[in-house]
Write a structure and sequence with these properties.
This protein has about 110 residues and is an all-alpha fold. The chain is built from four helices and no strands. Helix 1 packs across helix 4. The radius of gyration is 14 Å and the shape is globular. About 25% of the residues are buried.
Length: about 110
């Protein structure tokens, strides 16, 4: 996330991030505790080969920050820019919707 917005990291030069807020998958866990969405990915087996996991997580974190109660179609739209080689999309959908539900209960 660059200034809170998902971007393709391969298209951003390091120089373009100077003075801007950069959040990566490494910034999600706090004090040794996984982010709720990271835990949901584990609970729902949403990261098979791991190739797409960082991008999927960051796209979905942004989704839940801007829309705490997304529909399945909104989750699909949020991850549409991420490539998944092993087709774990159904598990990702379940994980994001479960994390949103958990977030609503808190």
């Amino acid at each position: 996330l660059l200034d809170g917005v998902p971007v393709n990291s391969c298209m951003i030069l390091a120089l373009d991030t100077v003075g801007r807020e950069v959040n990566t998958i490494e910034t999600l866990a706090k004090n040794g505790e996984l982010h709720p969405l990271q835990q949901a990915f584990i609970d729902h087996d949403a990261s098979q080969c791991g190739f797409c996991t960082p991008g999927m997580l960051m796209s979905c974190v942004h989704l839940l920050q801007t829309n705490p109660n997304p529909t399945l179609e909104e989750v699909k739209q949020a991850i549409s820019g991420n490539l998944c080689r092993c087709g774990t999309h159904p598990h990702i959908f379940k994980a994001v919707l479960a994390a949103a539900d958990e977030q609503q209960r808190k």
